[in-house]
Amino acid sequence: MNNFTYRNPVELVFGKGTIAELRRLVPQGDKVLFAYGGGSIKKNGVYDQVRAALEGREVLEFAGIEPNPRYETCMKAVDLCRKEGVGFLLAVGGGSVLDAVKFIAAAVPFQGEPWDILAKHARVEAALPLRSVLTLSATGSEMNGNSVISRDETREKLAFYSPLVYPKFSILDPETTFTLPPRQTANGVVDAFAHTMEQYMTYPADAPLQDRLAEAILSTLIEIGPKLLEHPHDYQLRANMMWTATMALNGIIGLGVPQDWATHGIGHELTALYGMDHGQTLAVVMPAVWRFKFADKKAKLAQYAERVWGVLGTEEEKARAAIEKTEEFFRLLGVKTRLAEYGAENAVEQVPPRLAQRGVVLGERRDIGPDQVREILRLCAA
Fold this sequence. Notes:
- The protein is an alpha/beta fold.
- It folds into two domains: about 10-175, Rossmann fold; about 180-380, Dehydroquinate synthase-like, alpha domain, CATH 1.20.1090.10.
- The protein contains 15 helices and eight strands.
- Strand 6 (about 145-150) and strand 7 form a beta hairpin.
- It is globular and about 65 Å long.
């Protein structure tokens, strides 16, 4: 196991009716920017619950944050915060809203061009404090310092991390996810699954606890994912999904072990170029990464096949079955696994030059460059 340092400052408030806890948790005095996406929180009652809990506080609203939050939209919120002297931010929504608010929090006090935070990895020296109310289980954004932002002008989707943008607290009420469309529910399962795999599906690192924690998350997603689509208003299923997605990317399972993230790096390009859902890109790319890096990942693939899927046989047989079982699971959720099914076959030639221009190298061994990405995309083209 590798050396590590771990700290997670997020206070989680989990369960039914917990949005009302905003009354206790939100400090008096500071001006609040209440940021959210489309109209879904007004249809499912979350908006009314939040406004009631914030009664008596000075609140500005900022609506319209997209499913893949746009830099251009975020900068409108940055200008508003600077103009109005906003004291802290409240994100109400899924991972996209949280990602946007994290970037806004970092950009408001940033000296210089805020895009540099993403494009040039400029250091974040300060950030507005932020809180969150989660309404979609997928990204783990409620308990980490990660953010991914898209920019229309350059057709890029880039990420940053800062310990300064961890939420001060996150409220997780599973009932807020009852009205999610099946497509969003399925994408969320795939997203949490892929987050787990990016930290697990590498090579043995003598970290049995991390491995078994990851395998528990994977097994839980396999168990509850299809049931969620059949029973979207089942509180226990929604509660377990919400907690599982949080655990997949709050840092615990990645401590002291190698991490991959090639699937996400390639997937972000597919979203930027073709508008594919984030979960869709992961379902397409991840099995292809495993096929391309089969020799390097064979030991962990075989371990995963046996422990999670109950597959027996030779190491080779188990490893190959692991890939097939994973693709079958994604398809069972209704998420397609080939570029051709999304009309994105041109990615084979379009994505590698974009990565080459930025000098991107991916994978746990940092050995997946543009040429290797081209081969991976060919494996998932049709």
